Amino acid sequence: MRSKIAVVGEKASVMGFRAVGFEVIEAEESAEISATVERLVREEYGVVFLTEQALSKVPGLLDKYKDTRIPAIIPIPGRDGTLGIGMQNLHKSVERAVGADILNH
Fold first, then answer.
1. Is 82 exposed, middle or buried (0-12, 13-18, 19+ CB in 10 A)?
2. Residue 43 CA to chain centroid, in angstroms?
3. Is the dihedral of CA 31, 65, 60, 49 positive or negative?
4. How many angstroms separate the CA atoms of 46 and 80, rounded?
5. Other beta carbons less than 10 A from residue 78's beta carbon
6. In this predicted structure, what is the pLDDT of residue 72?
7. What does the mean pLDDT of the chain come to?
8. Quick one: which H or E segment has residue 23?
9. Using one digit for the tens of pLDDT, what is the confidence trace for 76-101?
10. Cβ burial 47-73 (10 Å sphere, 16+ → b, else e)
11. Alpha carbon distance 81, 35 (integer Å)
12. Do residues 78 and 26 touch, judged by C-beta distance below 8 A?
């Protein structure tokens, strides 16, 4: 079975992903972003890339789905660059897995 992949965020940041066959969803308002992610979860998407700019508008979204098998929600930098959310999430995940933030050393 092939996993479905979606990219969610502001138009200028996500449109290029259409060329590689991902479902591209333009969403910029917090309610729209939350509803989109909920739909993708119901539709059993395997991977959801979410721009950091979009993710910053829905605090707690990563925590809500961190223990679910699917989808993997992965923050990516938007067109305007990174906000550091993806790296913060990686640090938290590593610390939870090994008991210490070994990436800061």
1. middle
2. 16
3. negative
4. 26
5. 20
6. 86
7. 82
8. strand 23-26
9. 888 776 656 655 655 455 455 556 55
10. bbbbbbbbbbbbeebbeebeeeeebeb
11. 25
12. no
- Domain span holding position 90: 5-104
Average confidence (pLDDT) over 20-37? 95
- Report d(CA 34, CA 21) in Å as an integer: 23
The total domain count for the chain is 1
Tokens standing for residue 29 = 């308002």
Domain CATH number, residue 18: 3.40.50.10580
* Dihedral angle computed from the Cα positions of residues 78, 23, 29 and 64, in that order, rounded to the nearest 10 degrees: -90
Digit-coded pLDDT (tens) for 42-73 = 999 998 999 999 999 998 988 888 788 788 88
Residue with tokens 């998407």: 45
Question: In this predicted model, what pLDDT tens digit does every residue of 8-28 receive, in sequence order?
Answer: 999 999 999 999 889 999 999
Q: Quickly tell me which residue has 């917090």 as its tokens.
A: 30
What pLDDT does 89 receive?
Answer: 59
